[in-house]
Amino acid sequence: MAASAGPEIERLIALLAKLPGLGPRSARRAALTLLKRREQLLIPLAAAIQETADKVVSCSVCGAPDTRDPCSICADTHRDNGLICVVEEAGALWAMERSGAFRGKYHVLGGLLSALDGVGPEALRVAELVGRCRGGDVREVVLALPATVDGQTTAHYLSERLAGSGAEITSLARGVPVGGDLDWLDDGTIVQAMRARRPA
Ligand SMILES: [Zn+2]
């Protein structure tokens, strides 16, 4: 009993199943919901995805996704240029912005160093970060990286690379749970961790 839904729908399900948190079963349910709610969901979602694909680029300064380059945060003259918060991915940046705890600029690494997965510094936006700190205008670099082995390895590496740049290197205080991704923290925890940051 091959209950195939037709190649287009099967392709939609197969793509949805690649999203984090969605296995084949939930992808099937999501697809069904989209098909049932054509006007409210399917068509607006298709348009939003197309528009994102057409317009979103990586900011050439910080690496965050935005529709303009430099991104709205890098272009914001009210934010502190002397303070750079380094995050693994944009999800952590968004969490930090939701918390309202930080009024400086960001730098999105695009991943973490990982001996296991063979990720070296050249695969991340490390050279760009070093370049931003070279001018002497950056007073402090806050390493807001996960409290995992890779996160801490990356933090240690960045501290060494940025030594001598003139910027103080700090990292978020504990309270960030070990193994915790910033995206999963509540805003209050992020605010506390940012206030109580310490030398890295
Ligand atoms: Zn930017």
TrEMBL record:
Q: Name one GO molecular function term.
A: DNA binding
Toprim domain boundaries = 82-177
Q: Which PROSITE patterns match?
A: RECR (PS01300), TOPRIM (PS50880)
Which PANTHER family does the protein's record reference?
Answer: RECOMBINATION PROTEIN RECR (PTHR30446)
Keywords of the record, alphabetical order, are: DNA damage, DNA recombination, DNA repair, Metal-binding, Zinc, Zinc-finger
Q: What does this protein do?
A: May play a role in DNA repair. It seems to be involved in an RecBC-independent recombinational process of DNA repair. It may act with RecF and RecO.
Instruction: Tell me the classification of the organism that encodes this protein.
Output: Bacteria, Pseudomonadati, Pseudomonadota, Alphaproteobacteria, Caulobacterales
Zinc finger (C4-type) residue ranges?
Answer: 59-74
Q: Give the record's family classification.
A: Belongs to the RecR family.
Q: What is this protein called?
A: Recombination protein RecR
Q: Which GO terms describe its biological process?
A: DNA recombination; DNA repair
User: What organism does the record attribute this protein to?
Assistant: Brevundimonas variabilis
Return the CDD domains for the record: TOPRIM_recR (cd01025)
